Amino acid sequence: MFDSLSERLTGIFDSLTGRGALSEKDVDAALREIRVALLEADVALPAVKDFTKRVREKAVGEDVIRSVSPGQQVIKIVHDALVDLLGGDGEPEGLSLAGEPPVAILMAGLQGSGKTTTTAKLAKRISEREKKKVLVASLDTRRPAAMEQLAQMAEKAGVNCLPIVTGQSAVEIAKRAMSAGRLQGYDVVILDTAGRTSIDEDMMAEAAKIADVARPRETLLVADALTGQDAVETARRFDERLKLTGLILTRMDGDSRGGAALSMRWVTGLPIKFLGVSEKVDGLDAFDARRLAGRILGRGDIVSLVERAAQDVDQEKAERLARKMAKGKFDLDDLADQLGQLQKMGGLGGIMGFLPGMNKQAKAQMAAAGMDDRMLKRQAAIISSMTREERAKPDILKASRKRRIAAGAGVDVPDVNKLLKMHRQMADMMKKMGKKGGKGGFPGMPGMGGGMPPGGMPPGLDQAAGDLLKGNAPKGASLPGLPGSGSGSAGGLPGLPGGKPKK
Questions:
Q1: pLDDT (tens digit, 9 = 90+) per residue, 277-332?
Q2: Architecture of domain 305-469 in CATH?
Q3: Beta bridge partners of 136
Q4: I want to staple 476 with a disulfide (CB 3.0 to 4.6 A). Which of 201, 245, 453, 463 is the partner?
Q5: Cα–Cα distance, 71 to 391 (Å, whole number)
């Protein structure tokens, strides 16, 4: 979402860091560029004015002028101001679920904002992370099949949905849901209210009646980030009637300019609690101002990447692989599992969004070298075309077998050879780790083993995460062993997939 803004800001900072000293005139020129970049990203004008004012007050001070690296100092100031704009440097504000059960959460928003999908995502998150028993209920009596949609999504999320009774009003359904929550021992009841294409009095009156019945602990507005400043106005008008406790922004993986996300907290004063990052039922991330600011400024978000890996990794497979690695073994079935873990984490595209320095140029270099999610699928298809014996003993693969495998996977023989070469390099690394007594690596990453090493994160990631948390530019953020990676690099990042662009 923030690719365009990140690209603009990175270019501005490059011009600053190339200078040995900065004058007030240099800072003003950079701030003009930053102002234009934020406005083009659809950030609210009052928020832009406040942002640039704060940056200028600190950037023209003596500390910056006398700094050994004034350009880096300005970047740090912009980063801190961006964190303030997004909601501050404190811990992310979670849900308030304390109190006599069942605790009600009211989901509000316009039609098409992703409210029903987000309801299921939130229920799954609370059920798995908070270990709460959750019931979801659809109060949307107007949109065709809205109740059936929530029931299907709830089944995917592994939570219970209130049985559908036709002919009831939204308020009656809310009463039934809260009663079922009390009688059946639910900790949390999430109420998915009806939406409209635009705000109207009937909608607000109905939502207010539901709130009176359920007395929700949390009233969350689900807003589509792709609607830009309209989302900010929607939040303001809902808050006037319902007294919202927080916001959830959906479609953060889309291609909008991101201004709504940057403006929302500043304009409404309401905390952004979650971000919808995919259509998958687990595609809901906690909002963290510092981490998001790091991604916007091209610093990446190694901490979230590590958390996502730890969350998505299959622990049983990881332990099994760790035992094999301790013996120096790593076959093609293990590689297939690692490719699957990588796809669960969002594929190469999803992972690269968390890495420092992955601007459009670096991504373009990767695309030109054929390093994309299609490559992962091709590699998985090649392994699937092998027999069980071939996967266990790749050394038996001679020319005739390779031709058969290539035909079965719909690829060329050189593609099979590339996969085998990659596997051989990774297997050699596993043997070395086994001899040294290593028992794991970075979970879900091909070439990095199946579990976390004793010290936590791998050294490079550990250093990068520490740098990010201190507000510094991350160092040592290489990810050795990504599929197809060699000794080359993409965009100057060591360890990232390299190779010659296709001609």
A1: 888 898 898 888 887 887 777 655 555 565 566 666 666 766 777 777 667 678 88
A2: Orthogonal Bundle (1.10)
A3: 161, 190
A4: 463
A5: 52
Query: In the prediction, which pLDDT does 42 show?
Result: 82
Rounded (10°) CA dihedral 476, 480, 483, 485 = 90
Residue 291 CA, chain-centre distance (Å), reads 10
Q: How many residues does the chain have?
A: 503
- Which positions ≥6 away from 326 have C-beta within 8 Å? 434, 437, 438, 439
What pLDDT does 124 receive? 95
Give me the pLDDT at residue 437, please.
53
48/33 Cα distance (integer angstroms): 12
**Boundaries of every domain in the chain:** 3-86, 103-298, 305-469
Q: Tell me the backbone φ, ψ of residue 137, rounded to 5 degrees.
A: -145, 135
* Cβ within 8 Å of residue 461, ≥6 positions away: 302, 305, 306, 442, 476, 477, 479
**Residue type at position 48:** V
Q: Do the beta carbons of residue 423 and residue 442 sit within 8 Å?
A: no
Residue 296 has what pLDDT? 77
CATH class of the domain comprising 3-86: mainly alpha
| pTM of model > 0.70 | no
Q: How far apart are CA 37 and CA 471, in angstroms?
A: 22
DSSP conformation letters of 369-385 = TT-SHHHHHHHHHHHHT
| Cα–Cα distance, 226 to 317 (Å, whole number) | 38
On the 0-12 / 13-18 / 19+ scale of CB atoms within 10 A, 99 is exposed
The span from the CA of 7 to the CA of 5, in Å, is 5
Instruction: Encode pLDDT of 233-246 as tens digits.
Output: 888 888 888 889 99
Instruction: Say what the pLDDT of residue 175 is.
Output: 96
Amino acid at 472: N
Give 134's DSSP letter: E
| Cα 488 from Cα 500, distance rounded (Å) | 9
Fold of the domain built from segment(s) 103-298: Rossmann fold (3.40.50)
Distance CA 477, CA 493 (A): 8
Give the C-alpha separation, 245 to 267, whole Å.
Answer: 15
Which pLDDT belongs to residue 255? 59
Residues of the chain falling short of pLDDT 70: 1-3, 18-21, 61-68, 254-258, 298-315, 317-318, 325-326, 328, 346-372, 433-503
Phi, psi of 370 (to 5 degrees): 80, 15
CA 210/CA 283 separation, integer angstroms: 28
User: Which residues are CB-neighbours of 50 under 8 A, at least 6 positions away?
Assistant: 85, 266
